[in-house]
Amino acid sequence: MEDKEKKQMLTTEITKEKGGGIVGIIQDITINGIKLHLAQNGTGGPVIFWGMYPHQPNEVEHLWESLLELVPEQNFLLVAFQVEDWNRDFSPWEAAAVFGKEGFAGQSLKTLRWLTEECVPHIDRTFGVKDREHWLMGYSLAGLFALWAAYESDVFSGIVCCSGSLWFPDWDHYVRNHVIQSKCSVYLSLGGKEEKTKNKVMAAVGDRIRAQERLLQEDSMVESVVLEWNAGGHFALPPPDGSAGEFRPQTKCHLLQDYSGSPPSLPVLQLQVPRSLSGGYPSHLQ
């Protein structure tokens, strides 16, 4: 076994049953030091890569169960990858702190290289899914990462940016000078109260996402773009004790409908981002 393959270690495998029948498998693996949590339902459908912060126990299982309840007939392979440092690993370039004292180290390129050069090939090889659509999605700063990845790589045919941090310093300059690298569909969402924050930098998110929609509509590589506004702010309910585990993302994410194996144009997996998904996010992401 090659050294690289030795880094790809299966740590957990759970078979889930629903209604008396087996519906899929959850696996935990590690690729070059980064943990992945995989949930497979059926044998077809898209491969959904989801950027996440280190999560609480059973978080991926809860997310998967939510998907199965919403779209029980939809086949998919969910690949949640767990970064070590949220502000560092999902920020596209260095930037000063916008809230609190922690700045952004701008290591998205390192994360993207790992994702496209190590993670995706391993998943393709192991599960035989190279010919299936690959989507990238994320929430908050991970949503910004997903959108930025479409400008920097040609791997993903679906991009889902839920309540993305488009307020990020200089993002508006970046998108005006870059184009999407491959044919894809893009979903954007934002809470209606997010642009009403007192933080002047983050308050720009509303104008930024409107401008982003227009730019994507004009981009010849974008086959469809959906911008959905949701009630509430970045998190629907404030944490009564200040803990991140009590946050509930308000965003309702429609993952590209009418999936048929060709580049999607409208949503098919209607995913209400569950409480468990926010459990691992830093409490300052508001």
Features:
alpha/beta, 9-stranded mixed sheet, globular, single chain
Structure characterization notes:
The protein is α/β, with parallel strands linked by helices. It is built from 8 helices and 13 strands. It has a 9-stranded mixed β-sheet, with helices on both faces. Strand 6 (94-95) and strand 7 form a beta hairpin. The chain is globular, with a radius of gyration of 18 Å.
The radius of gyration computed from the alpha-carbon positions, rounded to a whole number of angstroms, is 18 Å
Secondary structure tally: strands:
13
Q: Which percent band covers the strand fraction?
A: 25-35%
Shape: globular
Helix content: 25-40%
Describe the strand arrangement of the main beta sheet, using strand numbers. Answer: 1-2-3-5-4-8-9-10-11
Mean pLDDT, all residues: 77
End-to-end distance, in Å?
45 Å
Kindly report the oligomeric state of this protein. single chain
Given helix and strand content, the structural type is alpha/beta
Low-pLDDT sequence parts: 1-23, 235-286
Order of helices and strands: HEEEEHEHEEHEHEHEHEEEH
Query: What's the number of helices?
Result: 8
* Biggest pleated sheet: 9 strands, mixed
